[in-house]
Design brief:
33% helix; Rossmann fold; four-stranded antiparallel sheet; six-stranded mixed sheet; alpha/beta
């Protein structure tokens, strides 16, 4: 296996609150990792640091050997576009766009042609079982369907890593299991590394490895 990500002694303060306190972790290119903790434990802040959505106050994050903690905001945005797929509990789909348009949306800042954007988006939607719902807007889709669209969007730029923050949090148990099985399939078939942020033990059990976070620190690794 090849090391994809190495986070070393990350610290992050928000005012007087220490959200992340010395977290270190490593990830190989085919890992499926769950970061588990209660609300306020620091797990989401950890995800934001690893995704370059927040900058650590100290510590470093190496991604394929590159120290992303030293990048400015513009460089981070380009790095994130080319390497990271993000999936959120609330889906974050654009309500006025169809499933196809939502999935293709991250390709617009690139030089990809309209024809190629369409082909790539259709392929990803078919891959997550949404090939028959291309023209439907988010309001016309169930929660599970919206999350599948969000996963297809996260995959559109062929990321090395998917970061998913409570991806089953707004879903019923059966649909949540389906989404987790879909992520597992992507991990195995496309060799994309996955980090799941969750408070749910049943979700965490689907991962190969579980890290528990409490009060901004790893308590079990």
């Amino acid at each position: 296996m090849t090391n994809l990500l190495q986070a070393d002694k990350l610290y992050k303060m928000f005012g007087q609150v220490s959200a992340v306190h010395g977290i270190s972790l490593s990830l190989n290119t085919t890992d499926f990792l769950a970061v588990m903790g209660r609300s306020g434990s620091g797990k989401t802040t950890t995800m934001h640091l690893l995704a370059g959505l927040e900058s650590p106050d100290s510590g470093k994050i190496l991604f394929n050997g590159q120290d992303i903690s030293k990048l400015n905001e513009d460089s981070l945005a380009l790095w994130r576009r080319d390497n990271i797929g993000l999936v959120f509990q609330a889906f974050h789909l654009i309500p006025t766009l169809s499933a196809l348009e939502n999935v293709a949306f991250p390709l617009y800042p690139t030089t990809v042609t309209a024809k190629e954007r369409h082909r790539m988006a259709v392929n990803r939607l078919e891959q997550v079982g949404m090939g028959q719902r291309l023209k439907h807007r988010p309001g016309e889709l169930s929660g599970g369907e919206q999350q599948r669209v969000a996963i297809a969007r996260a995959l559109i730029n062929n990321p090395n890593l998917i970061l998913a923050d409570e991806p089953t949090g707004n879903l019923d148990s059966e649909t949540g299991i389906e989404v987790m099985h879909l992520l597992r399939k992507l991990n195995q078939e496309e060799n994309v590394a996955i980090i799941i942020i969750t408070h749910d033990l049943e979700v965490a059990k689907e991962a190969d490895r579980v890290i528990r976070v409490k009060d901004g620190e790893i308590v079990k690794n």
